[in-house]
Specification:
Blueprint (H helix, E strand, L loop, with lengths): L15 E2 L6 E2 H16 L1 H8 L28 H10 L4 E2 L1 H6 L2 H5 L3 H6 L2 E2 L3 E3 L12 E2 L2 H13 L7 E5 L5 H14 L13 H11 L8 H6 L2 E5 L3 H4 L3 H10 L3 E5 L9 E3 L4 H5 L3 E2 L3 E3 L6 H19 L5 H7 E2 L1 H9 L3 H8 L3 H13 L3 E5 L1 H4 L4 H14 L9 E4 L6 H6 L8 H11 L11 H9 L5 E5 L3 H4 L3 H9 L3 E6 L12 E6 L8 E2 L2 E2 L2 E4 L4 E5 L13 H13 L10 H6 L2 H10 L6 H4 L6 E2 L3 H5 L9 E2 L15 E6 L4 E2 L2 E2 L9 E2 L4 E4 L1 H6 L7 E6 L7 E10 L6 E5 L24 E7 L3
Parallel strand pairs: 2-10, 3-4, 7-16, 8-9, 8-14, 9-12, 13-24, 14-15, 16-17, 17-18, 25-32, 29-31
Antiparallel strand pairs: 1-28, 5-6, 5-18, 10-11, 19-20, 21-22, 22-23, 25-33, 26-27, 29-32, 30-31, 30-33
Helix pairs in contact: 1-2, 1-3, 7-26, 8-26, 9-20, 14-17, 14-18, 14-20, 23-25
Length: 771
């Protein structure tokens, strides 16, 4: 029997600390996943739902974007995937009666965990500008037709299309994303910020410049067959647990794995696969052959050290570099080699915090590897110099020809399950001219060419009164973005905020002057339109596209899918207007094959789309660097780059903070109060600090402090009441969970080139709480 939602928020006074784990998954993970599933869904519903996750005739997990293999296990999900499914398939419901009971002011006083635990939204809701009697404001129910007309009217009455901002979460399907960007461009703007702006935008910026494609260049088979895997700035045990099975297979095939991270993460130490006898009863598999405990922001120095070592050994002995590949397929080698040669080893040691001997040992593993893959996530992408760091990752791989051959390449590991597909479908504020021209040809209109706002620019626009409507297709914008105080004030400046959501979150309670909530179908829900069941598609981290079809009865009878919501808005917004996309919106709402037909003529690689995803088949998108070593750069070659070495400077008496997830969390969705692998239980407001730093700063473990970030604008940003926990992290570095610490990340502190918030390099001081 599923349990009722909680009545209180997380009690931070109950937090306690145990020793961190040195092994991931195993039987405890299975039991924890089953407990949460039972709490949310009940036993029968849990079994029926979980057995359809990631199956060819089932639905795609709403969690991470790690790919499935062709041959699927009967239980093709991980612990956190099961939690994500349970959250969506919960039998708890948020009805109009809930909103009548709780005012908007009361709801703002609850944390993200409590809000999310209340259950699925069931009916469109409207929050008016003021209460007619001057009392507390409450959301009130509104019909679908009235809600959509209000949104369409607000969009049609804008003085300038750029006064509207359209955010997108990475869980949106390809079909919904394609229609959404068509709605936005038909309105006349490219204001399409998305979650990519805050995570892998740095990856895309670096890879487009150097390889001509903003995606990874490896397949799941490449992971299995790599000789060396470097996993940097990533915690797969929590964030992408199914990746552990792929790493285990690679180990069985003889791979060496190097883990690079400021924190020791259990998922890269030892993996107990609960689907194998060895994982359950015989101690599992040791994954990392070497753990490089690097200082925050020191990854660029690590890859420059690897490159420097390879060049030095090649100068002495020869035979290290793939000269044929360099000569035929690359440009810029001479400038890169000269730049790296000029960096002294002592500076590389200072930047990484790793002795030269250890740096050379890692570089030797690269030198002797027959095929190398570098995997990374947010630990590399959320620094000021992230794009330069990733250019240097590419440089190292180019030296030995590790692009475009089996078992080798770049592997940015995406978070949301279709964040890569959204970008493929055109969710991007800076679209390429050829994509816009293809849209023009297909839909007989002229799409806007002026670049739109990314996420940070969108916040600035709302802050400065330049935006009147904000619409979010999924996600939790308030809790996902930096500088929380600024974001909340910015949204308050907007005339209308619209949230298309499955569940309640903080973005529903921090609103514009008016607000509308549109509940929508999730991945697990049956989607019946036009008399037949519809399916959608998603793209994983490795450019593979497959269908997803839910089977559960939706939370309410008249609930619309994201596709249906956007199609109806297109019809309303475009009616009677010139220069808008021409399509049969009603037909597209009721039969998604029509959308895929349009996609097949607009987006390269999707020809014969419908046939290629039929009967559980997978469509593998072309990847020019991987497939034939073709590089769509200005030179037509892969590009070596010369990047000045950068790394953070930490003032005396201060710490460099990284924000991160707990194990009971997926992005801004909080599943529970624990971080089992790191030994944190019963709370989230903790800061992990090296024991020597705790002593040096005049504190003891367990002290309650405020975290105050310091940046060049002189604004004091404060996160209150955090408990100090001694932890194995490099001197001068610290870690704490988001979204609680997003308030500390300055809005204008962003990565060069990509504009990604620098959430992994925040200078903070600790202030003792007054007694």
């Amino acid at each position: 029997m599923a349990t009722k939602p909680p009545k209180a928020d997380i009690d931070e006074s109950a937090v306690h600390v145990t020793g961190r784990k040195k092994v991931a998954v195993g039987v405890p993970a299975v039991l924890h996943a089953l407990k949460i599933s039972n709490d949310q869904m009940g036993v029968k519903r849990s079994v029926e739902t979980l057995l359809r996750v990631n199956q060819k005739d089932g639905f795609d997990c709403p969690g991470c974007a790690w790919p499935e293999e062709e041959k699927r296990h009967i239980a093709e999900f991980c612990e956190n995937g099961a939690k994500a499914v349970a959250e969506e398939a919960t039998v708890r419901r948020v009805t109009p009666e809930f909103f009548a009971e709780h005012s908007i002011d009361e709801l703002r006083g609850h944390d993200d965990w409590w809000l999310g635990q209340q259950g699925r939204l069931t009916q469109p809701m409207m929050l008016d500008g003021a209460d007619a009697d001057g009392g507390a404001r409450h959301y009130r129910p509104i019909s679908w037709d009235a809600a959509l007309k209000q949104i369409a009217t607000a969009l049609r009455e804008l003085d300038d299309p750029d006064e509207a901002i359209f955010y997108t979460s990475g869980r949106t399907s390809n079909e919904a994303a394609f229609l959404y960007q068509l709605l936005v461009r038909g309105l006349g703007t490219n204001n399409l910020p998305d979650c990519s702006n805050m995570c892998h935008e740095s990856s895309g910026s670096a890879l487009v410049e150097t390889l001509g494609i903003g995606k990874g260049t490896v397949s799941i088979e490449d992971i299995h067959n790599a000789d060396l895997l470097i996993v940097a700035g990533q915690n797969p045990g929590t964030n992408h647990p199914r990746m552990l099975s792929a790493l285990e297979k690679a180990k069985r095939n003889g791979a060496t794995i190097v883990a690079v991270n400021p924190l020791p993460e259990a998922g890269l130490m030892r993996f107990e696969n609960p689907q194998t006898p060895r994982g359950v009863a015989f101690g599992g598999t040791k994954l990392a052959d070497e753990f490089v405990q690097i200082r925050l922001g020191g990854d660029q120095a690590l890859f420059q050290a690897i490159g420097k070592h390879l060049l030095e050994v090649d100068d002495r002995e020869g035979g290290v570099l793939d000269r044929d590949f360099i000569d035929e397929y690359t440009t810029g080698f001479g400038s890169y080699a000269a730049a790296v040669a000029a960096v002294p080893w002592r500076e590389l040691v200072a930047a990484t915090g790793v002795p030269e001997k250890a740096l050379r040992r890692v570089a030797e593993r690269v030198r002797t590897s027959k095929s190398t893959i570098v995997c990374w996530a947010m630990g590399l992408t959320q620094h000021k110099h992230s794009v330069a760091t990733l250019r240097d990752v590419v440089n190292v791989l180019l030296l030995q020809g590790n692009i475009g051959r089996p078992g080798a390449g770049v592997c940015p590991v995406r978070g949301h399950s279709n964040v890569q597909g959204d970008r493929t479908m055109g969710i991007y504020e800076k679209p390429a001219e050829h994509f816009l021209q293809w849209l023009d040809d297909e839909f007989a209109f002229h799409a806007p060419r002026k670049h739109g706002y990314d996420t940070v620019e969108a916040i600035r626009a709302m802050r400065d009164g330049k935006a009147r409507v904000f619409m979010a297709m999924g996600g939790n914008f308030v809790s996902a973005t930096p500088d929380t105080t600024v974001v909340e004030a910015a949204l308050g400046n907007v005339d209308l905020t619209v949230q298309v959501s499955t569940k309640l979150n903080r973005s529903h309670v921090v609103t514009g002057r008016r607000a509308i909530i549109l509940p929508t179908l999730g991945r697990t829900d049956r989607d019946v339109r036009g008399g037949g069941e519809q399916r959608v598609t998603v793209e994983d981290s490795m450019s593979a596209v497959h269908a997803s079809r839910g089977r559960l009865v939706p939370p309410s009878e008249d609930m619309l899918s994201e596709v249906a919501i956007v199609a109806r808005l297109c019809a309303m917004v475009f009616e009677g207007r010139d220069n808008v996309p021409r399509a049969d919106w009603s037909a597209l709402e009721h039969d998604y094959t029509g959308i895929r037909d349009h996609i097949s003529r607009v987006v390269p690689g999707f020809d014969d789309f419908e046939a290629k995803i039929a009967k559980g088949r997978t469509l593998y998108l072309p990847n020019a660097p991987r497939d034939d070593r073709h590089f769509a750069t200005d030179s037509g070659r892969a590009v070596f780059t010369a990047n000045p070495l950068e790394y953070p400077f930490i003032p005396d008496g201060r710490l460099l903070l990284q924000t991160l997830r707990s194990h009971d969390q997926y992005n801004t969705t909080i599943y529970g109060k624990d971080d089992r692998y790191r030994g944190i239980h019963g709370g989230r407001r903790v800061i992990l600090v090296n024991a020597k730093d705790i002593q040096k700063l005049g504190f003891v473990e367990g002290d309650i402090v405020d975290l105050v970030s310091e940046w060049r604008d002189g604004v004091e940003r404060r996160a209150e009441e955090f408990r100090i926990v001694a932890y194995s992290t490099p001197r001068g570095n610290a870690a704490a969970y988001y979204p609680e610490t997003n308030v500390l990340v300055p809005l204008d502190s962003t990565a060069d080139v990509s504009g990604t918030p620098t959430s992994k390099s925040v200078i903070v001081r600790l202030e003792r709480r007054a007694a």
